[in-house]
Amino acid sequence: EAEVAQSPRYKITEKSQAVAFWCDPISGHATLYWYRQILGQGPELLVQFQDESVVDDSQLPKDRFSAERLKGVDSTLKIQPAELGDSAMYLCASSSIQNTEAFFGQGTRLTVV
Amino acid sequence: AQRVTQPEKLLSVFKGAPVELKCNYSYSGSPELFWYVQYSRQRLQLLLRHISRESIKGFTADLNKGETSFHLKKPFAQEEDSAMYYCAPRGSGNTPLVFGKGTRLSVIA
């Protein structure tokens, strides 16, 4: 069964360092989402892509966060510089045009020290 | 503003007891409603959506547009139902899911 792949699973970084996460959506899924989930909260959308274009990045802290999906397939989310408050689970999800169900990856747990 | 409320952070029930996880939403237009579940050490996955009107793992959810609620119910809880449950509406078109804060269901043997 096809799954959304994310790496790394865990990342520990010092504050002010740069960190990047990678996501490979289910093949053929045009829509890709990055969510952030702080402990005890539900996932919150950071950015949504349709193919290689950003559809919604209104909640992305653009002074330090960036996201790209250059070829409309896999995607990278970057934080530079990382801050203590960025510690969270970063989830990637994808969906197809035909089916509104979003499929989630295992997530990357980021700890900023 | 789009908002979804899950009033219970933690719900503990005995095995075999009925379960109801509450969800209220404030959304413009006619959103599509979903329940997602996350079992221990597993990824977030779809449990059910209101459009399909299915019963998945014994769970059902009825959309009440008048009360803007989409409560999740199961008549007899099982230990394997212990998990985090998230209510998530989404607007029309290819808009993203908006998640509630989640309810942790604990089924006690």
Can I get a quick summary?
Chain A has no helices and eleven strands. Chain A is an all-beta fold and 113 residues long.
N-C termini distance of chain A = 36 Å
From the helix content, strand content and strand pairing of chain A, which structural class follows? mainly beta
H and E order of chain B: EEEEEEEEEE
Q: Helices and strands of chain A, in N-to-C order?
A: EEEEEEEEEEE
Q: What is the count of β-strands of chain B?
A: 10
Largest sheet of chain B: 5 strands, mixed
Please indicate the percent range of residues of chain A in DSSP E strands (runs of 2 or more): over 45%
Q: What is the average per-residue confidence, as pLDDT of chain A, rounded to a whole number?
A: 95
Give me the Rg of chain A, rounded: 13 Å
Write the layout of secondary structure elements.
The complex is a heterodimer of chains A (113) and B (109).
Chain A lengths: L4 E3 L2 E4 L5 E6 L6 E7 L6 E7 L2 E4 L8 E4 L6 E5 L8 E8 L7 E2 L3 E5 L1
Chain B lengths: L2 E3 L4 E5 L4 E3 L2 E3 L5 E7 L6 E5 L10 E5 L4 E6 L8 E8 L12 E6 L1
Parallel strand pairs in B: 2-10
Antiparallel strand pairs in B: 1-4, 3-8, 5-6, 5-9, 7-8, 9-10
